[in-house]
Amino acid sequence: MFDLVRNNKRVVQGFLLLITLPFAFWGIDSYVRGGQGGATIASVGDFKITQAQFQQALHEQKNQLQQRLGAQFDPRLLDQPGLRQELLNQLVNQNLLLQEAGKQRLYASDVGLRQLIVGIPAFQEDGKFSKSRYEAMLAAQGMNPEGFEQQLRRDLTIQQLLGTLGDSSFVPVTVAEQVATIQSETRLVQEIIYSAESFLSKVKLAPEAVQAYYTDNQKQFERPEQVKVEFAVLSGAALRAQITVSEAEVKTAYESNKSRYQDPEQRRASHILLTVDEKASDADKAKAKEKASSVLNEINVTPNKFEALARQYSQDPGSAKQGGDLGYFGKGSMVKPFEDAVWRLKEGETSAVVQSDFGFHIIRLTGIKGGKTKPLEAVRAELEAELRQQAISRKFAESAESFGNMVYEQSDSLQPVAEKFHIALQQTGWISKGNAPSGTSLSNSKLLNELFSDDTVKQHRNTQAVEVAKDTLVSARVIEHKAADIQPIEAVRGQIEQTLKQKEALSLAKAASEEALANLQAGKEIKDAWSASREVSRINPRAIPAQAIAPVFRLPSNQLPAFTRVDLAGRGFAVYKLLKVGQNSMSPTERKSFQSAVRQQLQTLMSQEDTLNYLKALRERYKVEVNQAALMDNAADR
Predict the structure, then answer these.
(1) Is the pLDDT of residue 52 over 60?
(2) In which region does residue 582 sit, left (phi positive, over 0), alpha (psi from -120 to 50) or beta (all else)?
């Protein structure tokens, strides 16, 4: 009960790893109810997913992709129908599962949520949960604790629902054994490789072959349009040197945010819980309360027996064995009646009987810590860094508009913005149309398209200021231009000859392998030498090329030797001879472990299939309808 998450920590962590969709922090209630915000993208039962909600999710997806891809990020990715549809499917699935969880009265408790958060290593300092680190790490991701906890609570609620589904997947031992036997089958093979390279010396090209290929494939030898570029980058990082933070600003910020630097008071309590269902009759509730009162009387008579009585009577499986001890916790971690009772007690005091959704509690306060405020010097570096970043963001926002206006209004030069913003202009070598160097400011697709527009190439104007990354604007201008043309035949003759020889050598290798296979299948000897025999299995397939695994294991085992031919994907061809079929040598313990692993994999696959079928059934039950026109309406914000 109180140990819901602790006892299922691995399951929870595994589930959370699957949650890759970044959501806006609408909270469970507002998310399930739909809310306001423009046209409806999809309806899930009686609830709506609005365009505003979808755009917010899309914006979060954009931020995540920008962080991952950097300058290589292309905003047009977010306009692709497939990505938008997948994003909406995830929103719909989340909504379906939350509605069904609500219908089944499943929820994540405050205690479970708290235990999960304080156990996350990223939020800890010296092995202990740090509130300041927690808030700082969330802020760095554009989150706040309330939103993060709402999201996490929602995810845990869904995990409870899906956890029951996963537990129902079952694979019989006999099936696992059969699959394990198939997986551990070994095959002893020999091979002959007919590589294209080995036939190159036999290739003779016709005198007119190169010219004919050049004439028939002109587009292949097209040299794309190219430009040399001068560009200016306005970024938050470049503005950092212009920012100073005064002592007065630091002190003001500290005084305004003192609560943030307070080590919140935590209390340690033990309890004895007598559970009772919310739907229980009044008589059953009265009986449970009477029992709790009886236990309380025993405690009042002999206070030092609290731990022993907790082990004897408490029905909270997580804490009873520890004499009722729940450890330290802060406000907001427990259900309200429990928390109110704890914060009314003095250390060492025992409460009267307290009723909560879980039943009836007898609570003893066993410790108090925290409640102190960190001094300014302890948080000065953190405060200065935050104030500097805020100032950079403000200055960038102010500068961005001016930068954009200047490169447009004074479009014949970048020198004015370079002087005003103290930016060093940069130059590139030749850049091909549609192929800027990756990892640079110019690899943004929108900026690259502008570089090859008529305005930029023919009129020699600056491009507009393009946001290529967070807090980074770039404007560029063309300083040299080369039109697209066809490379002369002499420049590509060697390339053509190599292509034609490789193609002909591959044809010779194919013919030789086909002839060898035909002779072998007819029972004839061949002059080519076989390799040494090697054992291959599905568990360890590296003894032969990946393309050969399936064909080799498809060979019949009832009449040996058996032969097959394999295309090695442009490198040549191979012929294989199957000599023997056996089983991997394993000890009984190893085989049992292997069968167990196979069974677990099969159960995981079944669980995934069950989840997909479950979602399909929920879609029919709640009648999901999607407005495809609204889905593709409005391009993602850039």
Answers:
(1) yes
(2) beta
* Greater pLDDT, 76 or 493: 493
Task: Output the DSSP codes for 580-626.
Answer: EEEE----HHHHHHHHHHHHHHHHHHHHHHHHHHHHHHHHHHHTEEE
- Tell whether pTM > 0.85: no
Cα end-to-end span (Å), the chain: 46
Residue 26 confidence (pLDDT): 30
- Give the DSSP H/E element, type plus range, for residue 235: strand 226-235
Q: How far is CA 507 from CA 107, 430, 502, 570, in A?
A: 65, 39, 9, 10
pLDDT of residue 16: 33
- pLDDT tens readout for residues 155-190: 888 887 777 666 666 778 788 788 888 888 899 999
Structure tokens at 336: 């309200």
- Edge-first strand order for the sheet with 572-583 is 534-537, 185-195, 572-583, 562-567
Q: Angle of helix 145-167 relative to helix 81-103, nearest 10 degrees?
A: 80
| pLDDT tens per residue, range 325-380 | 998 888 877 889 999 999 999 999 999 999 998 899 999 999 998 777 888 888 88
Q: State percent of the chain over pLDDT 70.
A: 89
Indicate the residue type of 170: F
How much is the CA Rg of the chain, to the nearest whole Å?
35
Q: Is pLDDT above 50 for 602?
A: yes
In this model, does residue 145 exceed pLDDT 60?
Answer: yes
Of 628, 607, 610, 618, the closest CA to residue 92 belongs to: 618
Strands 534-537 and 47-50: unpaired
The 3-class SS string of 322-387 reads HCCEEEEECCCCCCHHHHHHHHHCCCCCECCCEEECCEEEEEEEEEEECCEECCHHHHHHHHHHHH
HEC letters along 237-253: HHHHHHCCCCHHHHHHH
Q: What is the predicted pLDDT for the residue at 587?
A: 82
Q: Distance of CA 108 to CAs 30, 61, 143, 335, 438, Å?
A: 17, 26, 20, 11, 45
Residue 216 CA to chain centroid, in angstroms? 46
Q: 266-275 and 354-356 as β-strands: parallel, antiparallel, unpaired?
A: unpaired
- Residue count of the chain, please give it: 638
Least confident of 147-161, 273-287, 293-307: 147-161
Provide the CB-side half-sphere exposure for 204 (13 A, CA).
0
Please list, in sequence order, all residues whose beta carbon lies within 8 angstroms of the beta carbon of residue 74, skipping any fewer than 6 positions away.
444, 445
pLDDT in tens, 521-557: 999 999 999 999 999 988 888 889 999 999 999 999 8
Cα-based distances in Å from 140 to 129, 136, 389, 566: 18, 6, 11, 53
Confirm if 512 and 572 have CB atoms less than 8 A apart: no
Peptide bond into 561 cis (omega under 30): yes
Given a contact cutoff of 8 angstroms between Cβ atoms, the answer to whether 203 and 504 are in contact is yes
**What DSSP letter does each residue of 446-496 carry, written as one string?**
HHHHHHTSHHHHTS-PPPPPEEEETTEEEEEEEEEEE--EEPPHHHHHHHH
